[in-house]
Amino acid sequence: MRAVCWRAARDGLAGHGIDPFSGRLVLQSTLVERLLHTIALSLRQHEDLDFVREQWQRLRTEGTGADRQRAAYRQRSSARDVVDYAVSATCPQY
């Protein structure tokens, strides 16, 4: 479990994760698609399937908050840029 959490934190959705059945590295997007397939019936029964699929598509298109933070850091290799991004993303009035 430590390895799974470490890989997820390090690579995010763009990286690889450990397949729980084979123990091999697999694209995170493949793991998410498998999970969605497995729980689709339950999501549909609770009328959440469309919402979950929309959010999954948004994450694939726009990236995650961590992706945006890494992009902010890459601009000038500045942690201050990451903090500025986080503040503007969560408190746009500042």
Structure overview:
There is one protein chain. The protein has 94 residues and is mainly alpha-helical. It folds into two domains: 2-63, no CATH class; 65-94, no CATH class. It is 70% helix and 6% strand. It contains five helices and two strands; from the N terminus they run αββαααα. It has helices spanning 2-11, 28-45, 49-62, 65-76, 79-90; strands spanning 16-18, 25-27. It has a two-stranded antiparallel sheet. A hairpin with a 6-residue loop joins strand 1 and strand 2. Helix 2 packs antiparallel against helix 3. The termini are far apart. The relative contact order is 0.09. The mean pLDDT is 91.
What's a concise summary of this model?
By secondary structure, the chain is mainly alpha-helical. Helix content is 70%, strand content 6%.
Distance between the termini: 39 Å
The percent of residues in helical segments reads over 70%
Tell me the domain tally: 2
| SSE-based structural type | mainly alpha
Radius of gyration: 16 Å
Strand content: 5-15%
Order of helices and strands: HEEHHHH
What's the structural blueprint in terms of helices and strands?
Layout: H1 2-11, E1 16-18, E2 25-27, H2 28-45, H3 49-62, H4 65-76, H5 79-90
Antiparallel strand pairs: 1-2
